[in-house]
Amino acid sequence: MSDLTLYHAAPSRSSVVRWMLEELGRPYEIHLLNLTRGDSRTPEYLAVNPMGKVPALRHGDMIVTEAAAICCYLADRFPDAGLGVPIDDPRRGAYLKWLFFAPSCLEPALLDRMLKRDGAPARMLGWGDLDRVMGVLRDALARGPYLLGDRFTAADIVIGGGLRWAVMAKAIPDDAPEFAAYVRRLSERPAARRAEAKDAELAKQSAA
What we know:
The protein is an alpha+beta fold. Helix content is 50%, strand content 8%. Strand 1, helix 1 (14-24) and strand 2 form a beta-alpha-beta unit.
């Protein structure tokens, strides 16, 4: 029995954490939630995550929520997997920036575009707009195959998970060369393929 349990729904944002767990190569268990049925709104699950959403990770007696925070925690807790950047490494700042760029900039900018939301002026929003967000990512990926150059990290899982979803949802062009190559490179990772296959099987079971 593993001491790692992912509270998970397939497909959902928690698929990013499942990919992270597959990259770690450590045993973990899945506590599957059916969001349509309202499993995430039960008193039992709200005691785990009061926000009533996935993912949530239980590690022993500790619970961590929010996908980027979970990936950061796992990378730090299991450094042998090589998915994090040590605190005294000069690249730590850039690594943390990209880890949290996804939930703070990429995702809200994508949702603004997809939902055609007309909100406050871009200068008042922490993410500005999608064109600026994608420009920042484009510049970073022009310097290497991954966000930190030649080094694949948890930041690529978090950002890459968002970009893979955006391509599938047609929120960004799937033929944009800067992103198509990056998304393809990440999708070909064995851990990403395993996570995707396992989630596809779970989705079939939930639909049955």
